[in-house]
Amino acid sequence: MAILFFAFLFLLSFSTPSEGGGSIAVNYGRIADNLPQPAQVVELLKAQGIKKVKLFDTDSTVLTALANSGITVVVALPNELLSSAAAADGSFSEKWVQTNIAQYYPATQIEAIAVGNEVFVDPNNTTDFLVPAMKNVYNSLVKHNISSIKVSSPVALSSLNISYPPSAGVFKPEIIEPVMKPLLEFLRKTSSFLMVNAYPFFAYSANSGDISLDYALFRAANANVVDPGTGLSYSNLFEAQLDAVFAAMKNLQYDDVPVVVSETGWPSKGDENEIGASAENAAAYNGNLVKRVLTGAGTPLRPNQSLNVYLFALFNENQKTGPTSEKNYGLFYPSKEKVYNIPLTMEALNAPGSTQVNGSKVQVTSAGEAPSAAVGQTWCVASSEAEEEKLQAGLDYACGEGGADCRPIQESATCYNPNTLVAHASYAFNSYYQKKARGAGTCNFGGAAYVVTQPPRFGSCEFPTGY
Question: What residues act catalytically?
Answer without folding.
Answer: 118, 263
